[in-house]
Amino acid sequence: MRKTLLLVALAVTSITSTQAQDNKVRLLSPDRLTYLEVSIDNGNATYTAGLRNVTGNDTIDVPMVLQSPLGLITNAADFSTGLTAETMTAYATPISVDYSLRQGKQSQIHTAYNRIDVTLKNADGKKFNVAFRLFNNNIAFRYEIPQQGETAAIVVESETTGFRLPTDATAFICPQSDPMIGWKRTKPSYEEEYIWDAPITTPSRYGHGWTFPCLFHEGDNGWVLISETGVSSDYCGNHLSELTDGNLFQIAFPMEGENNGFGSTGAQIGLPNSTPWRTITMGQTLKPIVETTIPWDVVEPLYEPTRDYKGSRNTWSWIIWQDASINYDDQVKFIDLASNLGWEGCLIDGGWLTNIGREGMERLFAYCAEKGVKPWVWYNSNGGWNDAPQCAKQCMHNPIVRKQEMRWLQQHGVAGIKVDFFAGDKQETMRLYEAILSDANDYGIQVIFHGCTLPRGWERMYPNYVGSEAVLASENLYFSQGFCDMEARHACLHPFVRNTVGAMEYGGTVLQKRLHREQGKGNTRRTSDVFELATAIAFQCCGQNFALTPRNLTEQPQFEIDFMKAVPTTWDETQLIDGYPGKYLVLARRHGEKWYVAVMNSETAAKKIQFTIPEFAGKTITMLNDGKDGQTPNKAELKVDKRGRITLTLQPQCAAVLY
Ligand code: CA
What we know:
Radius of gyration: 25 Å
CATH topology of the largest domain: Beta-galactosidase, Chain A, domain 5
Bound molecules: calcium ion
Strand content: 35-45%
Largest sheet: 10 strands, antiparallel
Shape: globular
CATH class of the largest domain: Mainly Beta
CATH architecture of the largest domain: Distorted Sandwich
Number of helices: 15
């Protein structure tokens, strides 16, 4: 942290280009291929952003986010209109950002940004700043609010912050749901159906706008991903409004009815302070979108880890064997399964307090220790914010019971908890997320959230954070045949949208053909076996609760099991090779020296895919695929040519895994 501050100080003394002509300032990214303009006109602050297209000696601006409003309204001052610029300064000396991340797309990150600082004054003479950081392909900005005279405590009630897009852009976005609907009134929980490549004028299903992250396609000009990061207990989680003014999405606040109507929809902050970062990632191709690290580049760890947290592959009985499996004997079977697979952990899901009891759990914890498997334990986040009945309840909602619970978990070697059924995006709920994470770290415990909001920079902010559901996840395969029919499409969508900004705890890799404990019952999986293996690479989360069951050990070809024994959950590097959201994906990830490539086709026709993996050039690698019939998984050696070119034909809802 000290290093960054020092660099900031140096940059201030070496301002190189402030083209601040009156009320407008323009800045280029360190590679000079992304631009940002900020202007103040008629009392309104706006920004415009885009890419620069270089052909020969000519460079033309390609606007991606059209002139869009800035500003916020607090109970102490209206910072949205009547604004004049006190100072507007562009700093074109790149400030480097270097850090390591225990989980994500990349383990060592080296990037840099230029910045714009604007100090604005409203009609009453009250001041605030807008801070922009311009990275290659990425922009982050936030409002910084100094103390206002004697007023040191404010509530941010709304923002005028917006993102104006070309009217012909299309969207891959997920609607915000009504509050207090769905299973036992547990929504919103980021579990709605996306619209796919649909016009931005499409109204959202519930009329409450769209949850982050939001991906937009602007034809040949490229792609834009909009999200936010750095949301801690100091703010609420925001989302995008319904489209207004023809082509403008604005920052929307939580809905009144969330958290059973309790708690403000605004953000209570002590001054000086700042809002979360809003982020824009732009690319002529999807590569900068899928590979972006902007959610972590602009945040800092909020505390030190109390131990060296490691990634984990867990067995998980509930996903196929459901509620009835949360009993002592069935959990022993899944602890044995984890041990057989050489996996790190076993997740004991909801219902354990009633069905197994604390004493039974302690015996299971001891059995885990004997088997070299770390236990993970499910909790209901409740509290009084929904009707979800699963136990253990009333253990995570206040610090007294929470710390008592965590002390018990720590005493018995529990590696992590999975806390489910949160109450939306209000600051009230953000405080609960942070309190759980912070207390858990004190007891050396990792945390997965389910039925929850999107993580916003949390991999870096909270070192014991593992992942969040915040997606229509694998449980829906069990619940609905329609979801099974769509599984391949979703699997080829999430790496381009939901998973680009945060760990996605999906709970996937189902190898049973039917989703039921008993043979011949349950929904039918449409994807091939290798497609399921490929999701273990495609979906990023350092703690994976995979959906394997004891039957898989004898029913699947041994090479499938061997792959699942070997697949890592943490990555040093990620590269998008090719793909289109919802259609197909070629994604390469490196763990240590080894590359793993997922090649997936979600469409209804066979697809010939050609691509180049330079790291495989001239090598003989292992390939798992589904055979010409799309049903017979096999393992083969593949000799890659000197240039690393690979051509594959994938059957519908089939995949190849290369490593
Ligand atoms: Ca869920």
